[in-house]
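README: folding subset

This subset contains proteins for which both the sequence and a predicted structure token string are available. Records are stored as plain text. Below is the entry for Flp pilus assembly protein, pilin Flp (59 residues), shown exactly as it appears on disk.
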Amino acid sequence: MIKFIKNFRKDEDGAVTVDWVVLTAAIVGLAIAAYGAIETNATTLFNATAGAIGGQNDF
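--- output ---
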């Protein structure tokens, strides 16, 4: 039992997996935040463009 505990403490395979999970979650979180900012600003830009085009009387 003592040998199992010593081997378990020395094993670092699971630690690498945890690091990758944390990094992946951070990247996904940043992507979601970036998408939200881009979507909001793009909608504002599209609405402003539609208003400018709609306000023109070329006929």
